[in-house]
Each structure stands twice: as structure tokens, then as C-alpha cells.
Amino acid sequence: MALSEDILGAFEGSDQPTNLGELFDRIEGKGFGLFLAVLSIPSALPVPAPGYSIPFALVLFPLAVQMLRGRTTPWLPDRLRAKPIKSGGAGVKFFKAAGKFIRFWEKLIKPRGVAAFRSPLLQRFLAIAVLACSISMMMPIPLTNTGPALGIFLISLGLLEEDIVFAIFGLIVAAAGLTLTGLILFAIFALIRSGFSGDFGEMMEQAELKVKAMLGR
């Protein structure tokens, strides 16, 4: 069964999950792909919201560490597993919206290069990318969240269906997002060194102008 059907099906009927632990127990066999997809979706949307990504990144980071250490299934602390999902509440609406969003992408993914996912080297390479992207998502700075989050989401799709094409696509998007983050941080550092005395908003405007100049736009 597709992941979108697993998620949406969990909230149909009277026997709905009451906490995150129950939900993830029902959606079994999806490994890290499930967690990375669900946690990256809110920040992957093209809505500039500095700081909004931080809570999701704080969960993505330890998941990436687990992948890097070679775990094949994710572990969540009991406190997070016990987080309630109230019927009709914001949590249910979020997971239903996530399921519909994933359903669109599932039309494009399929098992390709399955043998590559048997390699611990690929798992660690993807983990390093997710780790770096989650760090970028923790920054309350415009333009440092969406690209890395989208990279994680595309990587998660590759993991879900063992699709090397989407995994590579995710790595490319992640690299582009991290490059933009690096340019923004470089521009901010240059402004600070030059003695910039404006407020944060003005600094970001100047930083964006510097980045556009570096990119030749």
C-alpha cells in the first residue's frame, strides 16, 4: 500500500490513532522515508517563514544521526510517541494534508536502482545530506529553510520506493539549498565585518542584494 493511503486510511473510521506512536506503528515498513517526508513537508512548501522550520529540524537532526549510525528503522523517544493527535484537531488536518501532498508525488516515483539502497555507503551519504539540511533549517534566516527541506523531502521519496532517481534529485536540490544558505551566511558575515549598524530586516535586505550580485542577477 502507498504511503499516502496508509496515512489517510489511518484517519478513516472510528478507530483513529490517538498519538504519534500509534500512527507510526500503523504505518510500518516505511523506515526513515516516512519520518523524513512528514517532517519536511511543512518547510518544503514555498512559504517564507523564518524560524517555522526549527521544531521540525530538531526532530530531523537526530533521525539523520540514526541513519548515519547505520540504523535501518527510526527510533523516537516515548515523550514524542505519546504526543496526542486530537480527533478533528490541527494534527489530524496536518497529516491528511501531508497524505494528499505525498499522493501527488507518488505518481512519479517507482523502484529504480533498488540495489543501490542495499549499500551502507549510500545510506550514510543521504544521512549526511539530511543532517546538513536540518542544520540549515534550524536557522531563523529567510531563504535557508525551503530549499534544504525540499531536498530532504525528495530524498525521503527516494527512500520510500527505493528510487535512485529521486534520491539523486533530492541530493541536487539539497546541494543547491545549502549553497544558497552558505552564500547568505557569507553575505551576513561580510556586512557585520564592514560595521553594518542597521536592524535585522535591513541586514537581510542587504544580504539578499549581495547574494543576487554574487549569482549575477
Number of strands: 0
Cα shape = globular
> Pairing-aware structural class of the strands and helices?
mainly alpha
Overall domain count: 1
Query: Span from first to last CA?
Result: 45 Å
Element-level helix/strand string: HHHHHHHHHH
- Total of helices: 10
Largest sheet: none
Please tell me the overall pLDDT.
82
> Taking Cα atoms only, what radius of gyration do you get, to the nearest Å?
19 Å
Helicity range: 55-70%
- Which parts are unreliable, with pLDDT below 50 for 5 consecutive residues or more? none
**Range of strand content:** under 5%
How does this structure look, described?
The protein is mainly α. It has one domain. Helix content is 66%, strand content 0%. Helix 3 crosses helix 6, helix 7 packs antiparallel against helix 8 and helix 7 runs parallel beside helix 9. It is globular, with a radius of gyration of 19 Å. The mean pLDDT is 82.
A few lines on this structure:
By secondary structure, the protein is an all-alpha fold.
List keywords for this structure.
single chain, 217 residues, mainly alpha
Which helices and strands appear, and what pairs or packs with what?
Layout: H1 3-10, H2 20-26, H3 31-44, H4 54-68, H5 78-81, H6 90-106, H7 120-137, H8 146-161, H9 164-193, H10 200-214
